[in-house]
Design a protein that fits this description.
The chain is an alpha/beta fold and 405 residues long. Helices cover 40% and strands 17% of the residues. Helix 1 crosses helix 14, helix 6 packs across helix 9 and helix 10 packs across helix 13.
Length: 405
């Protein structure tokens, strides 16, 4: 098939959405599909922050990446960009003749995808990766108003799509509450289960030594951002340290909250227990997971969390907030759920697992087994079926630009 993908979130920006698009696109190309990815033009600083050379990513012969003019937008990573919508991207797709257009974002690239789908008369699929209402704190307006307005606007955009997907039921259900009428389907993001895989005990011990991890190392990976609630994990450390003197919280990633988190750890007297690992490439991140004891995530803004699934695939039990999508992927068979924002409850759940290494390993084994259902092969097979069904739907009619407004 010929598939056009639009996104504002793309390489070299670091994040789960970006990883998902890269993995899915590469696998589709390897299966013989032709894919054009329309994405924002990145700056040299974006590549520098990602610690990669300033050149285009190579996804194979069947994948073509088209960069369009963009502007930088404020974000915790310092890499986010917005494709400038001109209404002309469709012209570059006329010779390609896409059979389906798939947008992963609803802003600049999403608007271009919508225009292209209408002008080229092909069906539009939209994926919502964002719990957009949880980012209301970044806007200097009343949070409740921003949350409602943003959810209404996002839902109105996705009502122009033939099919709407999300990586969890929670994101689809929330959109339904705000008026989503389009057909919908939950499709997970894919993870590389060959890279993120458990290792034997002796290899694991060697990795612990290499990374300097104790037998009570908790690992978080992702943006160091307010909505990730990393402060909750740090606030749990004093209680944990009283029971487990060797407990350490390792934070992999970068973001604007790093200094605030460092100061909080120092204030609570646990500065030496918080290790900032910085940005890790995928191979190093897999090793860090393999060397740690438990993956931790206190975020209340997740529509899935790919790093959580990667950690689980590598054999780590997950202790996460009981909020939004996370309980769809974690239960007592593969980890523990803690009350959102409750540092003491996180400490209780973590103490239980750290006190019982046998249970911890059993939950980690279960987590790895569960995560394998989200392998790249499985998810790409699901997308192939969706693309074929949508492209071949004889009843398809693209709604006019003013529909569902």
């Amino acid at each position: 098939m010929r598939i056009a993908v639009f996104t504002d979130s793309f390489y070299p920006e670091l994040g789960g959405i970006q990883d998902s698009i890269l993995a899915t696109g590469k696998a589709l190309g390897e299966r013989g599909h032709e894919v054009v990815i329309v994405a924002p033009r990145a700056s040299r600083n974006d590549y520098r922050l990602a610690q990669v050379p300033p050149r285009e990513v190579d996804l194979g012969d069947n994948i073509r990446i088209v960069r369009r003019a963009s502007i930088a937008v404020a974000s915790s990573t310092g890499q986010s960009r917005l494709l400038l919508p001109t209404g002309r991207c469709w012209r570059g797709l006329r010779d390609f003749r896409p059979e389906v257009i798939h947008t992963h974002t609803f802003l600049g690239a999403g608007l271009e995808a919508r225009i292209a789908a209408r002008r080229l008369d092909v069906p539009l699929i939209g994926t919502n990766h964002w719990a957009i209402g949880e980012f209301s704190g970044y806007v200097p307006l009343p949070a409740a108003w921003v949350r409602r307005a943003s959810l209404k606007a996002v839902t109105a955009f996705y009502n122009h799509c033939r099919l709407v997907s999300g990586p969890s039921h929670s994101v689809i259900d929330e959109m339904r509450q705000y008026g989503l009428k389009s057909a919908s389907q939950v499709i997970s993001n894919p993870i590389d289960t060959t890279l993120f895989t458990p290792v034997a005990a002796d290899a694991r011990q060697a990795l612990k030594t290499r990374w300097g991890f104790s037998d009570a190392t908790l690992l978080y990976a992702g943006r160091l951002a307010r909505e990730k609630n990393i402060d909750v994990l740090i606030r749990a450390l004093p209680t944990l340290a009283a029971r487990h003197p060797d407990v350490v919280l390792a934070l992999a990633g970068h973001g604007g909250e790093r200094e605030n988190l460092r100061l909080l750890a120092e204030k609570l007297g646990v500065g030496e227990r918080v290790r900032f690992l910085g940005t890790l490439d995928k191979a190093s991140l897999a090793q860090a997971f393999q060397a740690a004891e438990i993956f931790v995530l206190a975020s209340t803004s997740e529509t899935q969390s790919m790093v959580m699934l990667q950690a689980m695939s590598a054999g780590l039990p997950a202790v996460v907030a009981r909020w939004r999508a996370l309980p769809e992927y974690v239960d007592n068979h593969c980890g523990r759920l803690a009350a959102p924002g409750d540092a003491e409850d996180f400490a209780r759940q973590l103490t239980e697992l750290l006190a019982d290494p046998v249970l911890c390993r059993q939950l980690g084994d279960n987590a790895s087994w569960r995560a394998r259902r989200y392998s790249v092969d499985s998810i790409v097979t699901a997308w192939e079926a969706v693309y074929a069904r949508t492209a071949n739907d004889a009843a398809f009619r693209f709604p006019p630009l003013g529909a569902h407004a």
